[in-house]
Amino acid sequence: MLKLEGVNAAYGQSQVLWDVHLEVRDAEAVTLIGRNGVGKTTLLRAITGLHPITSGQVRLNGEHVQQDPAYARARSGLAYVPQGRGLFPHLTVHENLLMGLPALNGRPNARHDLPELIYDLFPILHDMAGRKAGNLSGGQQQQVAIGRALVTQPRYLLLDEPTEGIQPSIVQEIEAALTRIRRELRVAVLLVEQYLDFAWAFADRYYVMQKGRVVETGLTAETPTRDVQRYLGV
């Protein structure tokens, strides 16, 4: 289980996260929603160790990891696909995927090669393995970014706005791939998403953030999207 208890974080003197409690169970899909600027990305970065927390606890499989650097959390099973994808545009698709392998260093019984499942999930990546990532469409780049995260053989996959700027057909492919990732690899997913139809179709539970705080949580199957739409409007 990934569990946050009373997490606070700031940028200088400006506090951004306030006493956040959140959990993601094994192989579960959870979506985190809220308007732009409420702290969702900061929360993902705090979980992965890319932004320090000022107080609180981050637990991964029962172990406290809030003091661990980002690379140690990656080796413990956390993978992160940031908003904007974070690819190396001048490297090829294949080279970008290889960048996930260092996260396996020191992990017992890990295979240090690209899993065939990545090309099975995203066949286009095999066809474009030699192309530079910066020349791909937004949807293709997102598939590379998710594939690179899967190279690390994670137990928890954190995704920040994976459908942003992507055509509907590719969104459907990504949803199908994420569903297989949960079912076949037993990977849990924490999804920051503004596209409620996608989030509700995929996730089991939701959290709503406002001004750096979690203000509502529940089951997606029991909560119509219209009941939370107000949290996304201007």
TrEMBL record:
Gene Ontology BP terms: L-amino acid transport
Keyword Ribosomal protein part of the UniProt annotation: no
Pfam families xrefs: ABC_tran
UniProt keyword Phosphoprotein present: no
Domain ABC transporter intervals: 2-232
Gene3D superfamilies: P-loop containing nucleotide triphosphate hydrolases
Domain of life of the organism encoding this protein: Bacteria
InterPro entries: AAA+_ATPase, ABC_transporter-like_ATP-bd, ABC_transptr_urea_ATP-bd_UrtE, BCAA_Transport_ATP-bd_LivF, P-loop_NTPase
Keywords: Amino-acid transport, ATP-binding, Nucleotide-binding, Transport
A single MF term (Gene Ontology): branched-chain amino acid transmembrane transporter activity
NCBIfam families tied to this protein: urea_trans_UrtE
PANTHER family: HIGH-AFFINITY BRANCHED-CHAIN AMINO ACID TRANSPORT ATP-BINDING PROTEIN (PTHR43820:SF5), HIGH-AFFINITY BRANCHED-CHAIN AMINO ACID TRANSPORT ATP-BINDING PROTEIN LIVF (PTHR43820)
Family affiliation: Belongs to the ABC transporter superfamily.
Protein name listed in UniProt: ABC transporter ATP-binding protein
UniProt organism field: Deinococcus aquiradiocola
